[in-house]
Structure formats: C-alpha cells, structure tokens
Design a protein that fits this description.
The protein has helices spanning 2-10, 25-46, 48-59, 63-90, 93-112, 117-145, 151-176, 181-190, 195-203, 210-215, 219-229, 233-247, 267-275, 281-299, 302-307, 309-315, 321-349, 351-379, 385-404, 406-417, 423-475, 484-487. The longest helix is centred in the C-terminal third of the chain and has 53 residues, at 423-475. The chain has 492 residues and is an all-alpha fold.
Length: 492
C-alpha cells in the first residue's frame, strides 16, 4: 500500500494537465497583493547600492560601515523570519503581511531622518525585520492559496516583485542623484515610506489562507476560499480533503467549525518532528533540501552583484555616476525580465530544468567576468574597451541566469515541498539560512575583493555555484504538477 502511494505521488496531477484551464483571476489577485511587500523588500535591500556614495559624503562613514549597513538588513531579517513563523501560525498569514508593511513604513522614516551612523543602523535593522517577514510569509501564502495549475506562477510572484523593487531602487538612485548630497540619499530611502500605507488597504480585500483556516478548525470558511481559488469544484473538494487529512480532521467531517487535534497546534511537537528521532527519513530529507537550496541561492554571490554593482562596474572601466547608475538599471531590467521568463515557464518546463540552467549559466558568467576583470588589471589601460564590454555583459548574464532559476524557484521549491504541519517553521529555517548567507556575502564582499581581488571573488562564487549545480542534479526531484500534499511522498 505504501509503495502504491509513493508511485501515485510520482505521477503528475492529471487534473492540472487536462487542456489549458483558464487562469483563476481571484487567486492571481490574492497572490499579487500578498507579494507586494516583496517590492519593498527588494527596494530596501538594493537602494543602498546607489545611495552609499552620497551617504559617505554626507555623514562621513567608512567602507567598513557601508558593509555593515548593507549586511545588517539581511542579518536582522533572521529575527523577522523567526517572528513571522509564529505570527503566521498564531494570527494568520494575512495579518502577518500587514505587520510586514507597517514595519517597512517605520524603518523607511527612521533611515530618512537619520543624522549619524547609529541611527542609520537602527533604521536598517528595523527594515531588516520587515524583510524577514516578507521573505517568509509571501511564498507561504501564495503556495497555499494557489490552484495546482498556477502554483509555479503564483509562487514566483514574490521573487518577481523583489526584482521589481530592486529595479525601482536603481531608477530611484539615478533619479535623485542630481540633488544635493545631503538630500539625494534621503529621498532614495524616504520615497519607500509611501507604498505601505496603500498596501495595508489592499490586504483587507485578501482572504485568509485556506490551510491556516483548516488548521484553526474553520472548515466552512476554508471551503469558501478554496472554491474561489480552485480551477473547479472538484479540485476545491480534493484540496480540502488533503488539508483535512494532514490536520488530523476526519475526512467525512462536514461541520463549519471543528476542534483541531491539539498536537497539530503544538510548536514543540513540530520542532521535535523536524530535528529528533521522531522525524521520518522523508521529513529529514525535505528539511535538509530546503536549507541547502537556500544556502546555494545566496552563497552563489548574487547579493554582491546587487549591492555593489556600481563598484564592480567601476572596476570594469565605467567612470561617471550617470554611466554607473545607467548600467545598473540595465542590470535591473535583465534581472526582472528573466524572472518573468521563469514565472511563466516553471509550470511547463519544471523546476529542475530551470535550476540546472540557472546554476550552469551563473558558473559560465562568473568565469567570464573574472577573466575580464583580470585582463583589465593586467593591462592597466583605462580604455581597454572590449574587456570592459565583456565584464558588463557578464554581470548582466549573471543576474539573468540567477533570475531564470535560483532566484524565484528556491522559494517556490522550498515552500511547496514542506508538509503543511511543518510549513511555518520549515520556511522560517530556510529563510534564516538564506538571510544568513546573504548577510555574510554583503558584509564581507569589499574585504574579500581587497584580499583576493574582484576577479578572484567571482572565481570563488563560480566554484560554489558549480557545487550547487551538482547538488541540484543529484538531489532535487521534479515537483511540477503535483499536489502539495503528495510531494512529501517524493522524498520517501
């Protein structure tokens, strides 16, 4: 019987492949609203890349302090992601998204009116907490609200909006660079305080996650949400039955409100299931996979490209602020464009193929970038134009490769392979690993390239990404077209 279940889990969900069902506009709208906090996250992470020069001139802060300011937002997000795992299970996914928006608003104002490094640190730390909230809750909510036919599309939305925020931050850097030094960087950060106020209103129109509603015993409300967010009534019924089974609720129960078994609400039991002998081999493999995928997403070094693009391009030969910030916008456009490619193809091509293409492309691009920078260093010629062009194209290729796979699909894959009972805590663990590595890359990149050169840094990232490609090839099963509740069987 157990073997039959495993074999059934290996077969894609047929109902999602029969014909081409119309996209569920209600589910799409919910996914878009839930992912809007990701725009703020991307904006705050990347805006410092163009603002740092003006902050240094205005407040007299050092390169080391810039490294700290760049990285603290990622390290602070650890606290946010852990807190979000509890609030999302305690007060719901929707309320947790509201909290993230409020924290973004406060952090933006603190940074805008900062007068010294300490206040800047406080503002970036507060914003980092909001980043942790957004990183954890947006993928969880979108995966739980999505019909099977759209799960890849909707679960990619947070990463699409993160990159939209990154692009907007680059545009902001260029737009406000013409103001006086003490005003320009404040405008770059201050404008980010406006969207959260409007986002809070939009969140009120969102339904709560049907999986959270079932875990709280609100079956009637969950049933109504599933009907709206499924491709057919039959799929809604099937999704509800799957969730009830995981929650320990009798499948023939048709009450609107029930009492969920206590063990499903007990956080201590959940942590024990993940990290003690109580856990099954499948659960251990899933948790390990989530953590390692998130490790490679950031250890591959793209955070260095996002945060320090102007510095890297300056090493490649670009000189003026307009050239540097204009080229940065080109990088942002490439990043966003290929995120959209991944978003609309992941449900057709599958996660595994895009992961492999992404990691392979990054390795090749990093090697090309490293050799281009080495040639410029060897020649010491400011007008060695063809090598500079190679470097610029290689930077664009790095972000394109990252965006077609590792960028969006690390979150999609992590959220969909986690069983419902472990999803909040498991997602927070993945986010902790992601933000830890992101912070490490951010706070060490300047020191790293001063020690082993910029080219050497990118050769190092190429080696790490190559190891990630091997891990993907041997350890990641395909999840395209499978129900969330059946995916656990893939790891048996």
């Amino acid at each position: 019987m157990e073997e039959e279940k495993i074999e059934a889990a290996r077969e894609p969900l047929l109902s999602s492949n029969q014909g081409s069902p119309r996209k569920n506009k209600y589910a799409l709208g919910c996914g878009v609203l839930a992912s809007m906090t990701s725009i703020l996250m991307g904006y705050h992470v990347a805006v410092i890349s163009g603002a740092q020069k003006y902050m240094q001139e205005d407040l007299g802060i050092s390169n080391t302090q810039i490294e700290i300011l760049s990285g603290i937002i990622n390290l602070a997000s650890l606290f946010g992601s852990l807190a979000a795992s509890y609030t999302s299970d305690w007060i719901g996914r929707r309320a947790t998204i509201t909290i993230a928006s409020a924290i973004f608003f406060v952090g933006s104002l603190v940074i805008t009116f900062a007068t010294n490094f300490v206040i800047l640190m406080v503002g970036r730390f507060v914003t980092g907490i909001a980043v942790g909230y957004a990183l954890m809750i947006a993928p969880v909510y979108t995966s739980e609200i999505s019909p099977t036919s759209m799960r890849g599309l909707l679960s990619s939305l947070p990463e699409v909006f993160i990159n939209s925020g990154i692009l907007l931050s680059y545009v902001s850097n260029l737009a406000f660079s013409g103001f006086s030094v003490n005003i320009s960087w404040r405008l770059m950060f201050g404008i980010a305080a406006i969207p959260p106020a409007f986002l809070a209103c939009g969140i009120l129109a969102m339904p709560e996650s049907p999986r959270w509603l079932v875990m709280r015993g609100h079956l009637g409300e969950a049933r109504r949400v599933l009907v709206k967010t499924s491709d057919s009534p039959e799929e809604a019924d099937a999704r509800l039955q799957d969730i009830k089974e995981v929650a320990g609720i009798p499948l023939d129960c048709n009450e609107d409100v029930v009492i969920v078994p206590r063990s499903e609400k007990n956080k201590e039991n959940i942590w024990k299931e993940m990290f003690t002998d109580q856990s099954t081999p499948a659960v251990k493999r899933i948790i390990f996979t989530v953590i390692i995928v998130q490790f490679f997403q950031q250890a591959s070094g793209t955070e260095a490209v996002v945060l320090y693009t102007p510095r890297v391009l300056a090493k490649a030969g670009l000189k003026s602020d307009t050239e540097l910030l204009g080229a940065t916008i080109l990088v942002g456009l490439a990043k966003l464009g290929f995120i959209l490619v991944a978003t609309f193809t992941s449900d057709k091509l599958g996660r595994r193929l895009l992961f492999l293409l992404s990691a392979g492309g990054m390795v090749i691009s990093y090697v090309a970038l490293g050799f281009g920078l080495e040639i410029i260093d060897w020649t010491h010629e400011e007008n060695f134009s063809w090598a500079a062009v190679v470097c610029i194209l290689a930077v664009v290729a790095v972000v394109m490769s990252f965006s077609i796979g590792f960028g969006p699909l690390a979150w999609v894959y992590s959220s969909e392979i986690l069983p419902l009972r472990l999803r909040g805590q498991g997602a927070s663990l993945g986010t902790v690993m992601n933000r830890t590595m992101s912070g490490v890359v951010a706070v060490t990149f300047i020191s790293l390239y001063e020690a082993i050169t910029v080219a050497g840094s990118f050769f190092l990232f190429a080696g790490i990404t190559a190891i990630g490609w091997v891990f993907i090839y041997f350890c990641l099963p395909e999840t395209k077209g499978r129900s969330l509740e059946d995916i656990e069987m893939l790891f048996e």
